[in-house]
Amino acid sequence: MPVLVASDLDRTLIYSAAALALTMPDARAPRLLCVEVHESKPLSYLTETAAQLLTDLADTAVFVPATTRTRKQYLRINLPGPAPTYAVCANGGHLLVDGVPDGDWHRRVIRRLADECAPLAEVQEHLLRTADPVWVRGQRVAEDLFAYLVVERELLPEDWVKELAVWAAGRGWTVSLQGRKIYAVPKPLTKSAAVREVARRTGADLVLGAGDSLLDADLLHAVDRGWRPGHGELADSGWTAPGIAALPERGVLAGERIVREFLKAARAPR
User: Fold this and answer.
1) What distance in Å separates the CA atoms of residue 3 and residue 266, rounded to the nearest whole number?
2) How many CA atoms lie less than 13 Å away from 191 in the CB half-sphere?
3) Which of 42, 172, 175, 212 could form a disulfide with 34 if both were Cys (CB 3.0 to 4.6 A apart)?
């Protein structure tokens, strides 16, 4: 029976230059591999060691990237090893199979959102009306499924995010602050639902996972074993769950440790 490995990408497996957390002396810094270029500039990295481990993992397990990125943003990433057969994009709103969106899955998601939470337009209007232009640098809608703001963290009032979370919860939405982005996402729009569908299709009898943000909590609750890095929303809040290991590593070395743990667990006798 196959092992399924479902992992968040940004700040879990891959890292922007600002998120690398290279706190060691320069001479001891790990060699890095660029895995994403955007507008002709390098954007995301992992260590060369993590790249080799990820390639080895593809020979041992079904590797499923599970990201909040849109399909277009995900397809910019060039991970080492064979292209994953399955990928979860838009926080579960799209399930890619060999790079092609599964239309039936997306229609199921849309029906559930319509039944269980307030419409996107209402949430978008609230964001635009209550956010202060002093600290907002951009507003986006992703795949017509959820919205997010790009903000200046230094100017962002902490109470505003808390108040937004309370308002959104009453309408079936959740709020997550990740770096310079504030996400408003429908509660039924989850990575875990899409990953469970992949596990059903592949017949996996062991599911491993990793993530760093509030939007990854549902995924980590759904896996048999999981890991979170020493940075991010989950670490900052002290979040834990049965079967989830809290790693001490931060930044790109946490990504390397996570892939190492995936490979070790996938190879272990069952």
Assistant:
1) 6
2) 32
3) 42
What b-and-e string marks burial along 220-229, b requiring 16 or more CB atoms within 10 Å of the CB? Answer: bebbebbbbb
pLDDT digits (tens, 9 = 90+) for 48-102: 999 999 999 999 999 999 999 999 999 999 999 999 999 999 999 999 999 999 9
pLDDT at 178: 86
Contact predicate 69/11, CB 8 Å: no
- What the block records as the tokens of 191 is 């990575």
Neighbours of 105 (CB within 10 A): 20
How many angstroms from the chain centroid is the CA of residue 122? 25
- Identify the three-state secondary structure at position 77: strand
- The pairing of strands 62-65 and 3-7 is parallel
Residue appearing with tokens 């990575």: 191
Q: Which residues partner with 185 through β-bridges?
A: 174
How far is it, in rounded angstroms, from Cα 141 to Cα 134? 20
